[in-house]
Input
Amino acid sequence: MLYSDKVMEHFNNPRNVGILDEADGVGEVGNPTCGDMMKITIDVDDDTISDIKFQTLGCGAAIATSSMVTEMAKGMDIHDAVNITKKQVADELDGLPAPKMHCSVLATDGLKAAIDDYLVKQGREPIAGDIESNDPDFDPHEESDVELDE
Ligand code: FES
Output
């Protein structure tokens, strides 16, 4: 299995690692396939993600995708950030090997959960819809078409 240089770079030097004290939103998700877990905390100003940090207990691909999704989401309006897809995250990392595509779900689901937590805490309606990794019918290998070009 071959990882891109970008995946390796984010794995070795993950961005935005940690937990925000008194975060405006907290998302915690687990990958049912492997048992790995991720927590994302966000600060939000005027519906814009002003700061974001993550902790991931998982494989290298989970850590790299978590790192990348925090970079993508920082400074974004929550209504745009909630639509970041696992394919976009994988593309930003120059692809993931097909067997590791399911790992990127943790990152996008963790972000969605944090955004919804922020909205619910404010008494607003959640917008993320279904959290994919919480679905018992979730097939982690369904979208395995994004592969690393060799
Ligand atoms: Fe668990 Fe990658 S093997 S998230």
User: Anything to note?
Assistant: Helices lie at 5-12, 60-73, 78-81, 86-92, 104-121. The pocket of FE2/S2 (inorganic) cluster is lined by residues 31, 34, 36, 58-59, 61-62, 103, 106 (CB under 6 Å). The first helix runs from residue 5 to 12.
